Amino acid sequence: MIDRLLPDEETPCRKQRYLKQDRSIRNDGVLKMRQSQTLIPTMREIPADAETKSHQLLLRAGFIRQTASGIYTFLPLGKRVLKKVEEIVRQEMDAAGAVEMLMPSLQQAELWQESGRWYTYGPELMRLKDRHDREFALGPTHEEVVTSIVRDEIKSYKRFPLIVYQIQTKFRDEKRPRFGLLRGREFIMKDAYSFHSNTQSLDEVYDRIFQAYSNIFRRLGLNFRAVIADSGAMGGKDTHEFMVLSEIGEDTIAYSDSSDYAANIEMAPVVSTYEKPDEPLKERQKVSTPNAKTIEEVSKLLKVEETRCIKTLLFKVDDKYVLVLVRGDHEVNDVKVKNYFQASVVELASPEEVKSVLGCPIGSLGPVEVKEGIQVIADHAVQAIVNGVCGANEDGWHFVNVNPERDFQVTAYTDLRFIQEGDPSPDGKGTIRFAKGIEVGHVFKLGTRYSEAMGAYYLDENGKSQPMIMGCYGIGVSRTVSAVAEQFNDEKGFIWPKQIAPFDVHLIAVNTKDEVQRELAEQLYQSLQKERYEVLFDDRPERAGVKFADADLIGLPVRVTVGKKASEGIVEVKVRKTQETFEVPASDIVSQLASIFERL
Ligand code: ATP
Ligand code: MG
């Protein structure tokens, strides 16, 4: 089924030419494939449960198939793209000084108990038992395994820094697997871990991997940003996420329109200042507000701007209740609440909890005369409100002409809200804009979180025992395939960038029953492969229309069609990206392709 290039066909001169032409990544020597003998099950109709363009096209063009929710098979074309993405990742990781290895997916519970994550990871961790009733997990990530290995094998500072990586299947029992490869329950990740004896070394390697990631995503042709991220449950400090800008992204990125500042919206500090209007304070009044629950309804009913309303929310911060105030047109950022209290868990109180703690529905909450023992914190913007409006902690009632300090006290005014479009950029340069992003990579300074928990110590220059300092670095390889697929397509199908297209050329014999056509096509099939082009040969006895539609759907960079003019030695070339079509003598095809690929 698969035609392999014999090693002795790889002449130095041919190799030179291939390198110069910079076509796709090659890693397996399989340069050609007959469509009649492989598995590319294309479909015309749009699969009902595929919501995104990438998911639809990966299914329709026969790259992947779902076997269970969030679990996929990579069919031959999908596998080829995956391999090429992996190869780019490998090249850049190797260049950054990382060494490849392979750790097991099946991990004994004891390791996870040592780090403590056995108890905190939650239902995403796939747990199972062996025949002796011993507990295991299917690895969602490998901090535990790698820390235990390095702990056992390395004792001296002289061996650092050490950077290891692997490309491997990960398991996470995601609550909502979706968008095909984008959020799977079984997916392929490149994960790397670095070990150091000092923080300068960690900083240096972090920057190097950061650069490697930028190279990888640039080489894939992705429109991406590295954004400041939340260190979350990992317990690290510095961390960046690599986000591909896309409408279907689940994360919102706040970026500056005039600098390279970009942050996950949860992480962007608000640097706005607010001026307090110079108005006389009016007498506070309680007014009836039947059926007005949201800020919008209250502001309409009472004819007050939303900027004068005080939005009040009850949060459960670890085991205490806290009232959080922001201006009516702002939203509370619970990560900021969490960071302010340095809490482990922050949750919005449910309507039932609000009822039982403050005796009113959520739409009537306010900071005036709050029950003792409940702390109140407020966003800076609230401090500048004069004669404002807030709930009266009584169903159907609000206060008007409420003034901070005079009518209620707060423990602290601090930054608690989400940044908004139009706010000044936190770096002082320009204005904030929003974009949606797909997280394809994540770099993270772990510090000693795992080494201390798991006893990974080394001896420093003075023979003193110290915990290893660590970093970890992930790329969602299969998710990246989806992100590329999402970015490179049109209404007819994929338009794969040449670096990772499953093949370079789609060779089509229009009428396989016509001997002249068949023969010329066979000849080109052989000669293009000799020139190190990867060729998918549509030799199926199908109608021309079917073959052309499939070729557009599959989206290889160049289509070469052998049709009626085969008798004159003429073939048609079509560039998928630009849709240009032209006829060339078959004898010129090699030079034509060289110049096309150079331009692509
Ligand atoms: P997300 O926030 O999207 O759930 P994460 O922050 O939990 O991802 P990490 O633990 O940082 O993910 O994993 C490293 C990389 O693995 C991510 O940047 C992402 O590209 C990829 N990844 C994570 N979860 C999935 C998944 N369910 N399916 C596919 N790729 C994933
Ligand atoms: Mg992440």
From TrEMBL:
GO molecular function: aminoacyl-tRNA deacylase activity; ATP binding; catalytic activity, acting on a protein; proline-tRNA ligase activity; transferase activity
PROSITE patterns: AA_TRNA_LIGASE_II
Pfam families the record matches: HGTP_anticodon, tRNA-synt_2b, tRNA_edit
EC annotation from Swiss-Prot or TrEMBL: 6.1.1.15
Keyword NADP: no
Enzyme class, broadest EC rank: ligase
GO cellular component, one term: cytosol
Listed InterPro entries: aa-tRNA-synt_IIb, aa-tRNA-synth_II, aa-tRNA-synth_II/BPL/LPL, Anticodon-bd, Anticodon-bd_dom_sf, Pro-tRNA-ligase_IIa, Pro-tRNA-synth_IIa_bac-type, Pro-tRNA-Synthase_IIa_type1
Location, primary (coarse class): cytoplasm
Matches recorded under SUPFAM superfamilies: Class II aaRS ABD-related, Class II aaRS and biotin synthetases, YbaK/ProRS associated domain
Record carries keyword Cytoplasm: yes
Aminoacyl-transfer RNA synthetases class-II family profile domain span: 65-497
HAMAP family reported for this sequence: Pro_tRNA_synth_type1
Free-text comment about domains: Consists of three domains: the N-terminal catalytic domain, the editing domain and the C-terminal anticodon-binding domain.
Designated name of the protein: Proline--tRNA ligase
Organism: Bacillus smithii 7_3_47FAA
Upper classification of the organism: Bacteria, Bacillati, Bacillota, Bacilli, Bacillales
